[in-house]
Amino acid sequence: MVETIPDISIDRLGTDLRELSEIGRAEDGGVYRMAFTEADMEGKAWLEQRMKDAGLETSRDGAANVIARLAGKNPDAPALVIGSHIDTVPCAGILDGTLGVLTGLECLRALKESGQVPERDIELIAFSDEEGRFGGMLGSQSFTGQVTPDTIHLATDPGGVKLADAMGEFGLDPWLALQARRDPKSVAAYLELHIEQGPVLAGHEEQIGVVEAITGLFKWTVSFSGEPNHAGTTPMPMRRDAFMGVADFAHELPRLLDEYGSDRSRATIGRVDLTPGSANTVPGEAKFTLDVRDTDETVMHELAEAARRILNAIARRRGLRSSYEVESWIKPVDCDPALTDMVEAAAKDAGTRFRRMESGAAHDAQIVASICPVGMIFVPSIDGKSHSPAEWTPWDDIEAGARVMLGTIQRIAFSENT
Q: Does domain 216-330 correspond to CATH entry 3.30.70.360?
């Protein structure tokens, strides 16, 4: 490994963050750069130009992943891939995955400007649709060969827009995502920097999270079907109120986690839709989302089975019909121990305050883990806030994260043995 650490320009990184944050910005202060919208495509074009301005080889694959490459001494050696995503949820903050992509770009610029040539190629990838507008992580799943024709044909967003139609609006052929698969032999490792999206680092006044494991999760769309009826004339004992099924299930969530989960388990009902949706009508149908997470897949399966039993019991008791559709199942993964040690060594060399920890959010890294070793670096989120305009990380912590990222890149890409 080379001994000299190039200078990171926090001012240049800050300029990048500010400029990209204006793409998709709305009057409420939030960023609306959802996958395969005009703002997302504008953001991709902006990023691609920044990569070219840095003198990096730039391309896009069939999943519209934006890719930059810093050539190494041995083009036949498997590459180090770094990255994250620039798409957002609605009304997002400006960091989330974007910080990982732009920090990676700054690291490659610093290396190129220093004249240091790595042993292997380093690739920076901004993966498409990490936030799952179309139900999965299209970019990283395409990269790892997990996308199928069914994915292309069936994927829709919550508003019913088909993936194929959304991509087609911008002249993109969604079937080319099937050609974005990377040969696992061509990838040595994957490294991702991300904001924590939780309160642990900020609460302990630490700058760096050395991630050891990434949570798995499953998402369901659950339905209770009953009978719509008049709110004033239908006696309470005679109602088949679909919403009461949702209320009963929500009340059972703490018991579900206590009996079948672990201290790392999480369960969330994030959205409920009622039909007919009238103030004076007993709901005949209720649909809701269920998001369940844990770092142990065995626990996830136990939670899923227990949730099914609870739904069936509530349906029988309330005279309802219940059903569910699995929107996604993402396995938990462990970060590679050798890469984790490299991140910790880089954190120590940079003089940062750090801790080893787990990720409670899903990331592209756990998808890429299916083809190569992965490592992750966290920086703090003030008050644990994310997916909102209040999302922020102090500048000195951003700079610390960039320096740890660069130090880790050097340990991987400048070694002939990685």
A: yes
